[in-house]
Amino acid sequence: MRVDDKVAIVTGGSRGIGRAIAGTLAAAGAKVMITSRKADTCEATVAELSEETGGDLAYEAG
Q1: What is the gyration radius of the CA atoms in the chain, in angstroms?
Q2: pTM score of the predicted model
Q3: Residue segments in the chain with a per-residue pLDDT below the cut of 70
Q4: Pairwise CA distance, residues 7 & 44, whole Å
Q5: How would DSSP label each residue in 22-34?
Q6: Which of 31, 44, 39, 33 lies closest to 11 in space, CA to CA?
């Protein structure tokens, strides 16, 4: 299933199930926004998933 150019917001997306969901959506073509409490974890996850999937990801922490 492709979700090209759709926007997805994944709360708790820096670890575990949320990270897996964010990666799957990014690989399927979605633009993914990850939210989490810790900025450093979000930043690392976005960098890793961008490299793995070639997807368009961003994050917001706080």
Answers
A1: 10
A2: 0.90
A3: none
A4: 20
A5: HHHHHHTT-EEEE
A6: 33
